[in-house]
């Protein structure tokens, strides 16, 4: 959703041939071969929407539905923008969709997608809502059991989605130029740029690191206004957060705005002690300039308050991620840190003091008074309305990026309620960084890199000159270009030619190509990415009949997807599957398809 909502931008078109006998092609399917559950005259019609990059998945789904008695119309869109327009217009019965839980916690895997009023939800079900809220407060076996109830309600009882598979991560590195040991492959978070180095470190200052993504049209460079594959990686590297995720999904302070963080024993209060070696960067003449403006507690309070407020910006797409933030404040009294205890019985002050350059002598509220070397720190306190430890995972999401209060308020002078995209320019609008734009680049980056400009071919980033200078987190490479290559086969060719240095998503069917190239290295990791069919719940037959949805659900044979992708996919039940194994499993069942189709026809 790192998303990261990826809508199969990350499951790109693949050209390899399926294993013989595993997956039928269109020409293999006979519409009246005696094996269908209904006669042609009684076949329900299903419109299947997807992107060109997911065409093979669409073909497999179509063939499975045709075999089980459906007429299928394919609605294939060339890119994400066109796909989203068709989806928003309701021109589908089911769509090929996908979700990557980029925060490493199961609540993110369901809240924005399936809770009533969620950022991406077209579902409204009180039972589902209740189970999502109950599960979010639990841990261990209790959480597992509650997420099992949620999957039962979401998938098997109501068929709001039909799962296809869990993806794995396959990353290709042009090791002839780039040091593979410096290129991370986290399970959840987006690609981290600051660690990457050329083999010849002398090139880090002068040479450009060429990376890749499929989507050229950027939703927004305001971190709260986008949550998709076009901006997740970019905003992750442009805005620092209070905490980060490790490569194995642990919440850590390393590489973040905080030296350390701690939860009070009630799991409703969270404290962060801030570092003072990060300033905002701005762009002048296509160069990054240190503004001298500290990324401070004041900016944290401003950023997180707008993150949780649906009305803070037009088209806010991440507010539900942060709805469990109650208050955000700057701590003013050091005795407050001494009196609050953590779960292990220590005081908050004691816990926060473990990893500091100097002991805390004073807590200050004004950024001008901050001096870590002299023991003067800012501490931010965040509260939740109920025990909710998963709030830390959400703070690690790109939408938790810290923006400049001064920069954002200088741009967003319009009234949010009457915002007109045809005449109002919002902070983070891609038009302000597009080559030839009449608007000035107004970005203020708190992270390791800042976007200088973009065109249809690439987006150019430069190093923030005031980001943790002299520490291990200071960015290694000065200049980064993110190349826009929609077709992943073309991107793989660019990797092999050295035109790009890292390909974050090598197609499962092309891993042998990378492994067989002496200039390349393949890295593999588990993923939180799930592909599924999303049913239209408004204005279509699928919205009216759970029986029709269940007939589609039990037509899906995940083994055929796994076979096509040469065993490099895993079975899924829901978007929770990579995070919590509930023990549930979807099995294709032609008898159930027939049962539900008969029930659907009888109800008409």
From TrEMBL:
Keywords: Signal, Transport. Gene3D superfamilies: Dipeptide-binding Protein, Domain 1 (3.90.76.10), Dipeptide-binding Protein, Domain 3 (3.10.105.10), Periplasmic binding protein-like II (3.40.190.10). Residues 265-595 form the Solute-binding protein family domain. It holds the Pfam family SBP_bac_5. It comes from the Bacteria. SUPFAM superfamilies: Periplasmic binding protein-like II. Residues 1-20 form the signal peptide. Belongs to the bacterial solute-binding protein 5 family. PANTHER family: OLIGOPEPTIDE-BINDING PROTEIN APPA (PTHR30290:SF9), PERIPLASMIC BINDING COMPONENT OF ABC TRANSPORTER (PTHR30290). This is ABC transporter substrate-binding protein. It comes from Solibacillus palustris.
């Amino acid at each position: 959703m790192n998303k990261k909502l990826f809508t199969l931008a990350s499951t790109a078109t693949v050209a390899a041939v399926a294993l013989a006998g595993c997956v039928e092609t269109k020409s293999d399917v006979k519409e009246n071969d005696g094996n269908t559950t209904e006669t042609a005259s009684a076949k329900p019609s299903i419109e299947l929407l997807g992107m060109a990059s997911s065409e093979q998945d669409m073909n497999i789904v179509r063939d499975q539905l045709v075999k089980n008695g459906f007429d299928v119309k394919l609605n294939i869109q060339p890119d994400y923008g066109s796909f989203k327009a068709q989806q928003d217009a309701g021109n589908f019965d089911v769509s090929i969709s996908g979700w990557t839980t980029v925060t490493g916690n199961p609540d993110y895997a369901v809240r924005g997608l399936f809770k009533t009023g969620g950022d991406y939800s077209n579902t409204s079900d009180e039972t589902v809502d209740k189970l999502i809220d109950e599960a979010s407060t639990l841990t261990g076996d209790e959480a597992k059991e509650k997420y099992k109830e949620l999957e039962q309600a979401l998938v098997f009882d109501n068929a709001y989605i039909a799962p296809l598979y869990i993806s794995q991560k396959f990353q290709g590195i042009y090791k002839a130029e780039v040091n593979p040991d410096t290129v991370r492959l986290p399970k959840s978070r987006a690609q981290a740029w600051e660690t990457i180095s050329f083999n010849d470190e002398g090139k880090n200052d002068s040479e450009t690191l060429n990376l890749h993504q499929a989507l050229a049209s950027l939703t927004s460079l305001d971190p709260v206004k986008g949550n998709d594959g076009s901006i997740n990686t970019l905003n992750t590297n442009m805005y620092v957060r209070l905490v980060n995720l490790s490569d194995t999904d642990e919440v850590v302070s390393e590489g973040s705005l905080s030296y350390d963080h701690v939860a009070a024993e009630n799991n409703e209060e969270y404290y962060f002690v801030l570092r003072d070696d990060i300033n905002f960067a701005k762009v002048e003449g296509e160069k990054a300039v240190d503004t001298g403006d500290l990324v401070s507690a004041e900016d944290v309070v401003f950023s997180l308050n707008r993150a949780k407020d649906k009305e803070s910006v037009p088209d806010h797409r991440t507010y539900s991620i942060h709805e469990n933030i109650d208050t955000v404040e700057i701590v003013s009294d050091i005795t407050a840190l001494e009196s609050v205890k953590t779960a292990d019985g220590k005081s908050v002050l004691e816990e926060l003091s473990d990893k500091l350059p100097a002991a805390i002598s004073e807590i200050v509220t004004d950024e001008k008074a901050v001096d870590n070397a002299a023991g003067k720190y800012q501490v931010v306190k965040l509260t939740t309305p109920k025990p909710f430890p998963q709030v830390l995972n959400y703070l690690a999401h790109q939408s938790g990026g810290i923006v400049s209060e001064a920069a954002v308020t200088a741009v967003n002078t319009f009234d949010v309620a009457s915002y007109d995209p045809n005449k109002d320019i919002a902070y983070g609008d891609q038009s302000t960084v597009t080559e030839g734009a009449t608007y000035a680049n107004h970005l203020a980056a708190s992270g390791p890199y800042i976007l200088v400009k973009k065109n249809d071919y690439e987006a150019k980033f430069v190093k923030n000159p005031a980001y943790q200078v002299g520490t291990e987190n200071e960015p290694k490479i000065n200049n980064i270009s993110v190349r826009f290559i929609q077709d992943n086969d073309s991107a793989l060719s660019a990797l092999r030619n050295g035109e790009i240095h890292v390909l974050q998503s090598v197609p499962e069917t092309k891993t042998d190509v990378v492994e067989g190239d002496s200039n390349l290295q393949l890295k593999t990791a588990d993923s939180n990415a799930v592909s599924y069919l999303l049913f239209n719940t408004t204005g279509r037959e699928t919205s009216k009949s759970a029986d029709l949805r269940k007939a589609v659900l039990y037509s899906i044979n995940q083994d055929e997807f796994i076979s096509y992708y040469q065993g490099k996919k895993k079975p899924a039940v829901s978007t929770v599957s990579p995070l919590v194994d509930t023990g549930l499993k979807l099995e294709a069942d032609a008898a159930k398809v027939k049962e539900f189709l008969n029930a659907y026809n009888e109800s008409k």
